[in-house]
Amino acid sequence: MAISNCFYSPTLKILADFQFGTDLQSLPLNHATNHIRTVVKHLKMQKLIYISSIILLIGCQSEKQSDSEIEQQIIEITDDYHKVWETVNMDSVAKYHADDIRYYWHGFKAASSNDEFLKLFKEWMSSTAVWEMEVENYDVQVVAQDIAIIGYNTKSTTTILTNGESYDYGNGALSYVWKKINGDWKIIHIHESALDNKK
Prior knowledge:
- The chain is 41% helix and 34% strand.
- The chain is of the alpha+beta class.
- Strands 1, 2, 3, 4, 5, 6 and 7 form a seven-stranded mixed sheet that branches.
- The longest helix is centred in the N-terminal third of the chain and has 35 residues, at 29-63.
């Protein structure tokens, strides 16, 4: 027995024809019923996928940070970075860098990778007992959710060597490019202007 018209809506016909290329009215009742169940099940699955997509979309939007939130994060992590420099432990300093960091120092490119940075600055800082820097005028530019640039001026940069000699490198300007890599902010580029050596 074929399916009766009273159990067969135009919507089900369109869906069945579209999904399965099947004319339900031409099928025996039990076969048509199975096809209808399959269509309904398919519709429920589509609804579930749609709802899940909406939930995911809302979740992604809620995770998006405002520019002011990112600016504050960058200032805080930059302060932390400077505190680590004061330990004169270059291994700890390097943890804030991306593997492919570029470091422009006093007018030339000092390092093209974090490995180069470590090799060079471990040698340069080996005779340093104290390193202190006073900074001012933080200026943060949020480029994207995962990229920000911070620039600032140094009021003074004091170095005391292991032999007791001290230097004040005076005023200068630096900028860092921070990029979020695997959830952590890392410096990918540093530019340090030539400083006025006061000695």
